[in-house]
Amino acid sequence: MGKHASRLTTFTVAVALLAASFVGVALHSTGNTVAAPLASNRNILVVARDLSDGKTMDPGRSYEFSASAVQQNVYDQLITYRGSNTDTPVPDLAASWTISKNARFFYFHLRHGVTFSNGDPMTAQDVVFSYRRLGYLNDNPAFLMGATSVGKKVTINNVRALNRYTVEFILPTPDVSFLAALGDVNFAVLDSKVVRAHGGSDAPNAATADHATTWLNSHSAGTGPFVLTNWVRGASGQVVLKRNTHYWGKKPALSEIVFQGISDATTERLEVSRGTIDIAQSVNIDGAKVLRSDPNARLVTGNTLDLIYMGMTLNPKVDKPLSDPRVRQAVRAALDYNGIDNGLLSGVGTQPNSMIPVGMLGNDAAFNASIKPRSNIAYAQSLMKQAGYAKGFSVDLAYDGGVTFDGVSYDLLAPKVAHDLAAIGIAIKLHPMQDTVLLAAYRAQQLPMVLYNWGVDFPDPNDYAGPFSPGGGPAKRMWYTQDLSMMRLAVAADSTANRVRRASLYHQVQRTWLAEGPWVGIVQPKGIVALHKGVTGYVYNAVYQSNFRNIKKNG
Hints:
The chain is of the alpha+beta class. The chain folds into 3 domains: 13-71 and 224-296 and 533-553, Periplasmic binding protein-like II (D-Maltodextrin-Binding Protein, domain 2, 3-Layer(aba) Sandwich); 79-210, Dipeptide-binding Protein, Domain 1 (Dipeptide-binding Protein, domain 1); 307-525, Dipeptide-binding Protein, domain 3 (Roll), CATH 3.10.105.10. 30% of the residues lie in helices and 23% in strands. It is globular. Mean pLDDT is 91; it is low at 4-36.
């Protein structure tokens, strides 16, 4: 999987004015900034981020960053990750669990006394409904519940309630990563009674029978500390959350969270310094340098499990030169990784060898360093000559124009890539695109070369090896479909409980990608979150970067 960012290139003040009217507070423009009087209220947290990727707030359908940011504060899952830890899941709605040795049978014993936002008690039947619905909706995140389609028939992982507080999963094949996946926001537990009352269904025909999404786009039915009360769509839109008075856990200090759409990194930096917003989530690397010496702001950074990568088609009908593995290896050898990571990005990030983050099982720092591509122009030129392209060729490179992802600007990165590849005769034609257009073309398998990002869903290598190997969604987009042995290798790795053996299998996955695959791992960025002074209680977590439920404002 991987949440997809969809960001527009401009910040439209007029839309922000419209969005503010829904919470009864007018915003006013000040040059290139937007002052937000809401931030002066110590009970209201104002979070600036780009909201343009928002398509739905329904956890059974959402697959985008802004929805995840909202859902981290509205919904709970069976398991979670606390503090900065992403290695060991801990209980959340489940008090405990047991897993069979073959990783096919999972039993979860639910916490007692949990209530939904309307006071309804949560039971195993709500868990079963939520997860059956997730699978049978057969939308973007349905694969998390093992959804597969044969004709019109959808098959999902078996889940049932053994009693009021016990849930059983029976998986068709061993899946070691399933426990980690249950911490993904798409595994939110919804109030089955409320969702059914608004047209929800967990039946096998839910893809056509379910009509609850419209209601869930402006309401919520979860157990989390906040509830969704309003969503104004668009890059400059707004999402409003109110405190859940029936929350089963520690009551949040905040009465309200407002996600305010601001897509310009400089605007966010200025506003968090002035205190017209409390948190900025799209500050770029240069902006972070300025804020480090700003007495009005505090930076929180940490390693992400996100990747910025380049994909190259394997289909000669889309681009003949790139379909040759020698050309793809030449591309990897032509890039100036040191210039990208330590020059352009000021050392704020790590070069992954391919598509499993550094520090994750199967790609520790030593292994990554041993196989990661290095710049070697002479070798790249020899590969180009062997492939019959000594004089080079031209190719289009699509990327998100105007987007800053984890502090990295695609508008700066793409020209650097083009400059590097020119050294071996590859003339890059840059195509900045709005993400809605780019993602549609990417999913339609139309792009010869793309710069894009993969946001972590759950902290396990299968979240990367599965999608980026044949059989996975991104692999299909680049026509990487022919190597069935690679598909079996990724499946075997996810079926192996022994960590040493499992790591060894992921070593093979990464070596195979470098030999034949479409991927270039450009950078694993660091997460940068800017807080206005007086904002306390935020802990950076690579999976839950937008978890604001424990925040306080002291001024």
